[in-house]
């Protein structure tokens, strides 16, 4: 549903085990913050934020009452 590109860096020898690879959690949070900034500026949800909203709204609510 959502495609998020994560840039991966390679260390100097090119074997791909660099400890400074980008963190997907940080990238996702940055994307959400940027989308929220656009939403607050223009009062209209950008496409990505609308897709996230639609996905979250489809999750059925649960009850915490004992049955």
Automatic annotation (TrEMBL):
Residues 7-17 have a biased composition (Acidic residues). Residues 1-24 are annotated as: Disordered. It comes from the Eukaryota. This is Uncharacterized protein. It comes from Trichinella papuae. The lineage of its organism: Eukaryota, Metazoa, Ecdysozoa, Nematoda, Enoplea.
